[in-house]
Each structure stands twice: as structure tokens, then as C-alpha cells.
Design brief:
The chain is mainly beta. It is built from six helices and 27 strands. It has a 19-stranded mixed β-sheet that branches. This is galacturonan 1,4-alpha-galacturonidase.
């Protein structure tokens, strides 16, 4: 499968929401006051004090656009929102006010943005009209992804104290018992926040709640930062828990940063996917997740994938399936590639099934198939430094399992200051298979693990 076909998206005129230029009822635009200081900006010693890091005006120098709030959960203000963000584009600010809810019930193409602030202090809430969203969405072939909206362009700042609510319960109920990667699956669930062809995106302070599927997906994006963000996914139905509600995913991204963030979901906390490079994660808290994962990569036949230059520091991983993880596909019809130059440092892990894991038989590939068609993803220069805490004991005494594929090369794997206990007993065990070179700590083959 060609890379372009994996990334193609149908932002078509047939379904994209269109609006008139008329001002919606209840909308307003407020312009900043003109002062001598403003008029002379750029000529004094403080010429840059009103500029953000991209060289654009800060909040107080921007025109402010407001729209009416929704009167009920069925009061769709999609057209008002699109009108407002067009008015705020090129140097303005869209303000969604505290205590107000703004219901989005139509797909939105926001791929045209250039220097825009969105101050979200209220709540953006998507309708849970499953029939509409199944038929009207933006589709990405990579793992059959769809989304409510696409954000694109450059210099986009979304910040505030508010919430983007995916209203996911009906999606969780409808998907119960299914698998996202099942070839027969046709029940696609929207991603809550997606960028495509975007440069310079900052998301600060807001909360993402109950995404139907992945919470964020960054595609063909350069320099994106999340700071002081909270991600939660909860279900009121114990038989239909949130599934595939990853915190962060990416595809073809250069410059992916996450700081000071909390994630409480039922899948990967942070999981850069193919062709992601220059990753920096610091001060990340994850509860009940599948870990901070590099990958999965190597899924599609004939496609080369890579992940490189990742630094993950000061991470807490609680009550999860995995902790620090590398994952790649194996099987008869998969791709190839590499993961290189990855550092996990100062990682606190508690009650986690697999605290450290290198998995090259990803997605339930059985041992026979994996041995016959091993992964061709090379893994080089990976460091785990100061990883401490406890496993759940599910894997016995094993607290780290590094199993390299016989079809790939795994070199420069280094573990240092590993202090992870198991409730099953001590001493804890570290497993390594097919790893080239000294990993820095004592390890045993999987055949000897207890």
C-alpha cells in the first residue's frame, strides 16, 4: 500500500459544511482598542512583548469573535462555529465562554487556518447521532480512522479551561465485542481531535472527554505541543468499556511534544505511530492504560515505517497492561522499518502487567506465525534508565521482556537502574531473546523465566 493512499482523506465539497457570510444570531466581534503603543508597535525596545513564539499577536492584541451557545444537546451550532473560526482566522480569537455548551452535529473542514487562537473555556460537545457520523466524516485508511473534523494550516493555538466532549457512551455501547483491526469491522468511531497538514499547533490547559475512539491523531503535522492537558474516557456500562481510546497517536509527524499531562483511558497513553520523529514527553501521568508505546509500526505490506529520536522523562504509569513498550507487527503480509534513538528515563510504574516490553509479534500474532514470518523492524539505540516500582505479577517474576524478532536486528539496547518488584516473588527477572550485545543488566532467555 502506498504511503499517500494511507494518508488520503476525503474532505469533499459534497459533505463539507458550507455557510453564508451573514452574521449568525447572537454572534459578535470585538476589536482591540487602538493605542499609541499599539500603533507604534515594532519601533521600540519592547517591540516583541506583544508577540507569541511564532511572531504573531498575543491574546490582548486580537479581535475576539463570539457565538451563541446551544440551547440543548440537539441544538447544533456547527454553522455558527465555522463562521466564527473563519472570522477569527488571520490574527483573531474565537472565544467559547465558560459555563456554555456548543454542540457540533455536522462534520467540519477546518484545514484552512492561519494564525488563529481558540480560547475554549466552555464545552464543545459532539452529537451522538451514530447514523449521521457513520455516513458523514473524514476517513483515513490507516487503521480505518474517521474523525468529526480536521484541523489544518499553521499557527493554531487552542487553550483555556474548557472541554472537548466526544459524547462516547453510545459509541462504546455500539462497539462492544468488536475489534478495530478486525477485517470485517465496519463500525467506525470518530477520533476526537485530528490535525492534518498542520504546522505549529499548541493545545494548552483543556480537557478531552469520552472520545469514541482515539482521542488525538496528528497526521502530516510539524511541531505540535500539548501542555497541561487532561484526557479521560469513562463508561457507565460495564459491558461496554471504552476501547481504543488512545491518548495520543501520530502519523508522519516531526516534532511531537507532550508536557504536564494526565491520561486516564483504556488503551495506549501515548503512542506515536509510523514516521514520527523528534518526540519529547515530560511529566506524563497515565492510569489504566496500555502504556507509553513506540508504535505499532510495520503493519502494511511493502511500507517502510520508522520512529526515531524520542525522549520520554518523568512518567508515571499506574494499573496498566504495559509500561514502557516498543511494538511492531509480524506475519506474512506486513511491512518493515526501524525504531531508533529512544530514551525512557525516570519512569515510575505500579501494578502493571508488563512494565518494560519489546513486542515484535504485535496484535495477537501467535508464536507459530510469528516464527514463520518474523517482524522486519530493526530496533536500535534504546535506553531504559531509572525505571522503578512494581508489576502486577501477571507475568510471574518477569518485569521486563525484550524479545527481538529473528528477522530483525536489535542492537544498542541498554537498561540501567532498573528496580521493579513483583508480588509473585524475588528476585525479579528480565527476559531477553535475540538481543545483540550486553544490555547492561542480567537477563535470561524466555525459556528460563518463572
Amino acid at each position: 500500500m502506498k504511503l499517500l493512499s494511507l494518508l488520503s482523506v476525503g474532505i469533499s465539497a459534497a459533505y463539507a459544511l458550507s455557510i453564508s457570510s451573514a452574521t449568525p444570531a447572537g454572534a459578535s466581534i470585538e476589536y482591540p482598542r487602538t493605542t499609541v503603543e499599539n500603533r507604534n508597535n515594532g519601533h521600540g525596545k519592547d517591540k516583541d512583548k506583544d508577540k507569541d513564539k511564532w511572531g504573531n499577536h498575543k491574546e490582548h492584541r486580537r479581535r475576539v469573535v463570539k457565538i451563541r451557545a446551544s440551547k440543548s444537546d440537539s441544538d447544533d451550532i456547527s454553522s455558527d462555529f465555522l463562521w466564527a473560526i473563519k472570522k477569527a482566522n488571520h490574527g483573531g480569537l474565537l472565544h467559547l465562554e465558560k459555563g456554555k455548551t456548543y454542540v457540533i452535529g455536522k462534520k467540519l473542514d477546518l484545514s484552512f487556518l492561519n494564525d488563529v487562537y481558540v480560547k475554549l473555556d466552555g464545552e464543545i460537545k459532539f452529537t451522538d447521532d451514530l447514523d449521521y457520523w457513520q455516513a458523514n466524516n473524514f476517513y483515513y485508511p490507516f487503521q480505518k480512522s474517521i474523525t468529526f473534523w480536521v484541523w489544518g494550516g499553521r499557527d493554531i493555538r487552542i487553550y483555556g479551561t474548557g472541554t472537548i466532549n466526544g459524547n462516547g457512551q453510545k459509541w462504546y455501547d455500539g462497539f462492544a465485542g468488536q475489534e478495530i483491526l478486525d477485517p470485517g469491522n465496519t463500525f467506525y468511531r470518530p477520533i476526537l481531535f485530528l490535525t492534518d497538514n498542520a504546522t505549529n499547533v499548541d493545545v494548552e490547559g483543556i480537557k478531552f472527554l469520552n472520545s469514541p475512539c482515539w482521542t488525538t491523531f496528528l497526521v502530516r503535522t510539524k511541531d505540535v505541543t500539548f501542555d497541561r492537558v487532561r484526557i479521560d474516557a469513562f463508561s457507565t456500562n460495564i459491558s461496554a468499556l471504552p476501547k481504543n481510546t488512545d491518548g495520543f497517536d501520530s502519523y508522519n509527524v516531526d516534532g511531537f511534544n507532550v508536557f504536564n499531562t494526565e491520561v486516564n483511558v483504556g488503551d495506549d497513553c501515548f503512542s506515536p505511530k509510523p514516521n514520527t520523529t523528534n518526540i519529547h514527553v515530560e511529566n506524563l501521568w497515565c492510569n489504566g492504560t496500555h502504556g507509553v508505546s513506540m508504535g505499532s509500526i510495520g503493519q502494511y505490506p511493502g511500507v517502510k515505517d520508522y520512529i526515531s529520536n524520542a525522549y520520554i522523562k518523568n512518567v508515571t504509569l499506574l494499573n496498566g497492561q504495559n509500561g514502557a513498550r516498543l511494538k511492531a507487527w509480524a506475519g506474512p503480509n506486513v511491512g518493515y522499518g526501524y525504531i531508533s534513538n529512544v530514551t525512557y528515563e525516570d519512569v515510575h510504574i505500579e501494578n502493571t502487567d508488563n512494565p518494560i516490553v519489546l513486542d515484535q509479534c504485535y496484535f495477537n500474532i501467535n508464536e507459530t506465525v510469528c516464527a514463520a514470518s518474523p517482524s522486519r523492524v530493526n530496533i536500535t539505540d534504546v535506553r531504559f534508565i531509572n525505571v522503578y516500582g512494581s508489576s502486577s505479577g501477571k507475568e510471574g517474576k518477569v518485569v521486563a521482556e525484550l524479545k527481538c524478532s529473528p528477522g530483525a536486528e536489535c542492537t544498542g539496547i541498554h537498561l540501567e537502574k532498573i528496580n521493579i518488584t513483583s508480588p509473585v516473588g524475588s528476585p525479579s527477572e528480565i527476559v531477553c531473546d535475540n538481543i545483540t550485545g550486553d544490555i547492561g543488566v542480567d537477563c535470561i532467555p524466555s525459556s528460563e523465566a518463572s
